[in-house]
Inverse folding.
């Protein structure tokens, strides 16, 4: 059983706080009503019945697979895991006449720093994910699916297994679903906490029992996926959005957001805010409104910067964020990305150098090591930032940092290398003065401003591990 008391003791209000705007996925949740009967009381599995033509008014016929895909295309639903690829278009890539097995996979390997939306979905509304996956399987003619769940949230995996058993017992999964001619079986699979397995092809490798490392593309999973068969992979939140679209129509979903940015999005607002948690709002909602839902900046301090889409997203300064709406296009225009929807808020006490050190260490640690630019380059980034943070930086280090980041981008099999490089370039673009101050004064600008007297950084602060010194005068060449 998931212990809800921890949310009360820490002030974390997760997703059942009632401070959503037009919620479609989190509506009616209280942290305890996750079971099948609770979901059905909220209208659950009505979308599945609609497409199958089960218990419909006046004996209305169901929807064809093509009609389901067309409705999802009309909705402008985009992948909620980070890439933002149009979901209906992705479903249409699945070959219809393929003679062998095809697979559907849900990517619940939520390991992005700052992101905590998918685990809440699986814990407090698991049946909406199951229903969305069954609808997707029907649309693409798939008989078998898997939900790959992050290994470090094992209690969530157990909760999802319980939900699967309930769905099977009710005839919503398995052979001849709800008495129809359609059959689909769904299995839960837990990983072991590797960040790289959030990349879709590394996830497939892990699901097959191999080392979780990304594959070369092409071929893409739609033609050569799980066990070498056509496979479609979507994020947890993406599947959870599907039942609402089927029940209310793609046009209604599109109108809830902005053109090319249909529907609602769950944002994990974390960091220096009074009430961190998950907030479901229509795409296009101003950031200022989202910040207000989270109680504003903690302690009434000034907003300094925000990472708007999880740790890979380039940081944006406060003024840019306060003038911006939260949708794919607006954030991209501002020079960042919506990503996973993790909004990391930083107040004016945050040192950008130390913040980047934490991020750079994470990517250096999580690199799978398959690609040389990522394996070696992430270590260079971490060691350079560590040197600057601890008062040993050199004037040329700032340009070297930017050069190393640029040499990593676009030169790896998967996007982890880019994810490590983009935060570096974002920090240097908007907060280069802080890095220069560290280099010149051997201390932190934020600490100096607070005390009015520059204080050298204590030895050993920051990441506990001691990095290997950089060779004099060397850089990363790709």
């Amino acid at each position: 059983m998931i212990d809800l008391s921890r949310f009360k003791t820490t002030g974390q209000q997760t997703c059942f706080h009632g401070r959503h705007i037009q919620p479609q996925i989190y509506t009616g949740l209280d942290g305890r009503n996750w079971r099948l009967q609770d979901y059905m009381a909220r209208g659950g599995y009505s979308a599945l019945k609609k497409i199958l033509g089960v218990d419909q008014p006046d004996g209305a016929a169901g929807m064809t697979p093509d009609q389901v895909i067309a409705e999802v295309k009309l909705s402008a639903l985009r992948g909620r895991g980070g890439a933002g690829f149009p979901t209906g278009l992705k479903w249409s890539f699945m070959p219809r006449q393929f003679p062998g097995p095809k697979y559907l996979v849900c990517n619940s390997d939520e390991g992005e720093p700052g992101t905590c939306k998918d685990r809440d979905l699986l814990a407090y509304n698991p049946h909406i994910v199951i229903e969305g996956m069954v609808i997707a399987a029907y649309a693409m003619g798939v008989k078998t699916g898997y939900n790959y769940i992050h290994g470090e949230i094992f209690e969530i995996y157990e909760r999802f297994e319980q939900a699967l058993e309930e769905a099977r017992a009710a005839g919503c999964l398995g052979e001849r679903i709800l008495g129809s001619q359609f059959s689909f079986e769904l299995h839960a699979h837990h990983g072991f906490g590797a960040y790289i397995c959030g990349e879709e092809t590394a996830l497939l490798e892990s699901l097959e029992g191999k080392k979780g490392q990304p594959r070369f593309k092409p071929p893409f999973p739609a033609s050569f996926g799980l066990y070498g068969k056509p496979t479609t992979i979507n994020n947890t939140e993406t599947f959870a959005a599907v039942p609402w679209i089927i029940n209310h129509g793609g046009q209604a979903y599109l109108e809830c957001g902005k053109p090319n940015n249909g529907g609602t999005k769950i944002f994990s607002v974390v960091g220096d805010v009074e009430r961190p948690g998950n907030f479901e709002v229509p795409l296009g909602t101003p950031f200022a409104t989202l910040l207000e839902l989270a109680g504003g900046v903690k302690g009434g301090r000034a907003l300094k910067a925000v990472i708007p889409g999880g740790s890979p997203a380039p940081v944006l300064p406060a003024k840019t964020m306060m003038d911006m709406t939260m949708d794919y296009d607006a954030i991209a225009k501002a020079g960042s990305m919506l990503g996973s929807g993790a909004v990391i808020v930083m107040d004016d006490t945050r040192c950008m150098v130390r913040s980047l050190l934490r991020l750079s260490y994470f990517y250096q640690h999580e690199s799978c090591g398959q690609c040389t630019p990522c394996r070696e380059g992430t270590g260079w980034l971490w060691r350079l930032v560590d040197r600057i943070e601890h008062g040993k930086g050199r004037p040329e280090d700032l340009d070297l940092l930017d050069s190393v980041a640029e040499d990593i981008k676009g030169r790896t099999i998967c996007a982890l290398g880019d994810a490590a490089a983009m935060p570096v370039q974002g920090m240097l673009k908007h907060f280069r003065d802080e890095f220069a101050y560290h280099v010149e004064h051997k201390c932190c600008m934020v600490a100096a401003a607070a005390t009015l007297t520059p204080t050298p950084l204590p030895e050993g602060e920051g990441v506990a591990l001691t990095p290997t010194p950089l060779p004099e005068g060397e850089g990363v060449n790709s």
The first strand starts at residue 103 and ends at 108.
